[in-house]
TrEMBL record:
Keywords: ATP-binding, Nucleotide-binding, Transport. This is ABC transporter ATP-binding protein. GO terms for molecular function: ATP binding. The keyword Transferase does not apply. SMART domains: AAA (SM00382). It comes from the Bacteria. InterPro entries: AAA+_ATPase, ABC_AA/LPS_Transport, ABC_transporter-like_ATP-bd, BCA_ABC_TP_C, P-loop_NTPase. Residues 4-234 form the ABC transporter domain.
């Protein structure tokens, strides 16, 4: 059984189908990439999965449980974490406190310090735990976001364009981080950087114009003429 199973999800805005009958499975421990051109519907699909956007049709099933009717915070408690946008970091609070804020809704108060320490260790930010989040480099701030997602010990971590704006060394470190996480939780990676996708994904789902265009291994996706035409450009 898949960890996350999206079935026939559909969402229209003003009569235009942003997501059109999309089904997608993420297996336990899998790194699944979701790619597609701008406006393909990736953010909308993830919004439907995590409950930030209400679906017009379709179902969301997590570990066999139909969660379609649950609000976002209930889905989060069941183990779906979504990387916060950079704006959700409190610049004037220490790194540790930012991650603690993300952890608190998920556990007893006494468990928070250990969970935060572990999440900071996983992303390699222990040394910066006392620093104000706003004083960190952009790359480190992105890692704080990931630590915030990890602090709840999710079963599924959804990373929305995590390498955007990162330098090459930071991207290399991000790849190592994801490799170290795989096995602990499944990862759904929305990513424009094809090098990152090819390096990390077990399977890739390609969205185009709201519909699933192709699904397969990174090599199969790279070799598919339809994907090349729609997304990757001419070889
Ligand atoms: P990007 O890679 O640029 O982030 P995306 O693949 O995430 O794109 P979405 O942001 O999901 O794509 O958008 C899919 C389509 O739905 C687009 O045509 C977009 O204009 C439209 N759309 C998304 N959100 C809304 C909204 N709140 N109101 C109206 N239209 C929307």
């Amino acid at each position: 059984m898949s960890l996350l199973s999206l079935r026939g999800l559909t969402k229209s805005y003003d009569g235009v189908r942003a997501v059109d009958d999309v089904s997608l499975d993420v297996g336990r421990g899998e790194v699944r990439a979701l790619i597609g051109p701008n406006g393909a519907g990736k953010t909308t699909l993830v919004g439907l999965a995590i409950g930030r956007i209400a679906a017009d049709a379709g179902r969301v099933v997590l570990d066999g449980q139909d969660i379609t009717a649950l609000p976002a915070h209930r889905r989060a408690r069941l183990g779906m974490a979504y990387t916060f946008q950079i704006t959700s970091i409190y610049a004037r609070l220490p790194v540790f406190e930012n991650v603690a804020l993300a952890a608190r809704p998920h556990m007893m108060a006494g468990e928070v310090p250990d969970a935060v320490a572990q999440a900071l260790e996983q992303v390699g930010l222990e040394r910066h735990r006392g620093a104000l989040a706003g004083d960190l480099s952009y790359g480190h701030q992105r890692l704080v976001e990931i630590a915030m997602g990890l602090a709840s010990a999710p079963r599924l971590l959804i990373l929305d364009e995590p390498t955007q704006g990162l330098s090459e060394p930071e991207i290399a470190a991000f790849k190592d981080l994801v490799r170290s996480l795989s096995g602990r939780c499944a990862i759904l990676l929305i990513e424009h950087n094809m090098d990152v996708v090819m390096a990390l994904a077990d399977r890739v789902s390609v969205l185009a114009a709201g519909a699933l265009l192709f699904e397969g291994t990174p090599d199969a996706v790279r070799a598919d003429p339809g994907v090349q035409a729609a997304y990757l450009g001419a070889p």
